[in-house]
Design a protein that fits this description.
The chain is 36% helix and 20% strand. By secondary structure, it is of the alpha/beta class. It is globular and about 65 Å long. Bound molecules: S-adenosyl-L-homocysteine.
């Protein structure tokens, strides 16, 4: 999401005459787009800021700004705590950057952290940064209304609102015209997408009958995008179990160009902990959803987010997480130790009472189990041939391409005459827990 937002910022600044540079020594302005999701993410930002001290000494015109969630969370306090910072801009205020920069250029420090009620950047064509010309992100919703008790996102990114289908299609068309092959639709909770003419999702209920009747949900948006851009591979992230509908799964199954992969965070396998997290589903409801996904898309890649050591988590709760992982057998996952975030319900009401060693030990156990499952899951591809979108050289060997299957597995294979951006049929011969290794038996036709 931050990556995508930075592209919006680059577009706004391009219109103010700024150019991108890869070398911070050449920069007159450095913007750090920040994340607040865990304390470690914030510490990383603070360490980065320290590195800018010497750059500022060498170049007294250099200005430093912080964008994103940490800017929103800390507001003016950022200026007090980090003297190097000239500019603090929250995720919904990037259109104000030209004005804020005028202040900063006059040696004032500037702050704008006002959150918005409507889609903020629908009309902007992002400048693709560090892109490979193959895959791009397209934002479809902003903010989040879910109020998971551990999560800072609703406070830093505001209320949930959806972007108009017209502006999404316009951005998709631009990408298609430029030859992009894959788009990931982005939102904190994509399944909750709801366009009814604009405004916060929570106000839909107050909308008139006409607007309600013509409203568009995520499955309909997916359908529209898949039919409008049959040559583009479509992915989306993130799905929330309580909001994902069968219609979405059926739409995925209906279209070849919607990838067979669902990122479906669970956080914990314990009903007691799920309830305390205000995740609005039970373990069983989640498992039922997984069952439906596997029925409708048998080969679907499924990944997860899990965190260990949420307040009061016992060994029994932790075991519930491990057994849930055994039941689902995920392809891969993102795993974290709980990090208390100031201002969240959990920080206000619960003691962060699982000690760090225990959190880390449990984390290690789930990571080890996931690695075992990833390897087992990857083995199902051996001897199979799958279409792979080539995106870059393999990190380990310049002789190999790296790409992804529809299920989102990384595949490496000898380069031969293939090029990035091609969809190639690769026959898988071996695998590790992270990578499929294959070779091409015949040249394929791009979808
Ligand atoms: N709405 C997004 C949230 C992104 S945060 C989504 O559903 O993907 C990604 C993951 O970070 C969450 O799923 C959760 O597992 C983890 N996370 C969020 N808050 C956290 C916290 N306070 N401590 C540790 N991990 C956290």
């Amino acid at each position: 999401m931050n990556f995508s937002d930075s592209e919006v910022v680059a577009s706004i600044l391009k219109n103010k005459g700024y150019e991108l540079t890869d070398n911070s020594k050449d920069a007159s302005l450095i913007l750090l787009n920040t994340c607040s999701i865990r304390d470690k993410a914030e510490q990383t930002v603070r360490n980065k800021l320290k590195n800018f001290n010497s750059l500022k000494k060498d170049n007294d015109k250099l200005k430093v700004g912080v964008l994103g969630c940490m800017a929103e969370r800390l507001k003016e306090k950022f200026l007090e705590e980090e003297k190097i910072v000239d500019l603090v801009v929250g995720p919904d205020s990037y259109k104000d950057l030209p004005n804020l920069l005028n202040e900063v250029e006059n040696n004032q420090r500037a702050v704008n952290v006002i959150l918005s009620k409507s889609e903020t950047y629908g009309d902007i064509s992002p400048v693709r940064i560090h892109n490979n010309g193959i895959s791009a992100f397209v934002s479809i919703t902003r903010g989040c209304d879910n109020m998971c008790t551990f999560c800072v996102v609703p406070f830093t990114r505001g209320r949930e609102r959806s972007r108009s289908p017209e502006s999404i299609i316009r951005e998709m068309q631009e990408l298609s015209d430029k030859g992009y092959k894959e788009v990931t639709l982005l939102g904190q909770n994509v399944d909750s997408y709801l366009w009814y003419g604009g405004g916060p999702k929570k106000d839909f209920i107050k909308a008139n009958e006409e607007k309600k009747k013509n409203s568009i949900r995520f499955s309909q948006l997916l359908d529209l995008i898949a039919t409008s851009f049959p040559k583009i591979r479509i992915r989306f992230s993130t799905s929330n179990p309580q909001d994902m509908t069968i219609d979405v799964i059926r739409t995925m199954a209906k279209y070849e160009n919607i990838c067979n992969h669902i990122h479906l965070p669970i956080q914990s396998g314990s009903d007691r902990i799920l309830k305390k997290m205000n995740r609005l589903h039970t373990r069983q409801e989640y498992l039922d959803l997984i069952k439906k996904i596997k029925e409708i898309i048998p080969n679907c890649g499924i990944s997860h987010d899990i965190m260990t050591g949420f307040p009061t988590e016992t060994e029994k709760d932790h075991q519930d997480t491990l057994t849930l992982m055994e039941e689902v057998k995920y392809d891969y996952g993102y795993m974290f130790a709980y990090s208390e975030r100031p201002g969240t319900y959990a920080a206000r009401k619960f003691d962060d009472d699982v000690n760090n060693d225990i959190k880390q030990r449990r984390l290690e156990e789930i990571i080890n189990l996931q690695q075992k499952h990833s390897k087992e899951r990857n083995q199902r591809f051996i001897k199979k041939t799958c279409p792979v979108l080539v995106d870059k050289s393999s990190k380990k060997s310049k002789e190999f391409w790296s790409g992804r299957t529809s299920e989102n597995n990384v595949v490496v294979f000898p380069k031969q005459n293939f090029s990035p951006g091609e969809i190639v049929d690769v026959t898988i011969e071996d695998c590790t827990s992270a990578t499929l290794i294959g070779k091409v038996k015949k040249k394929s036709i791009a979808i």
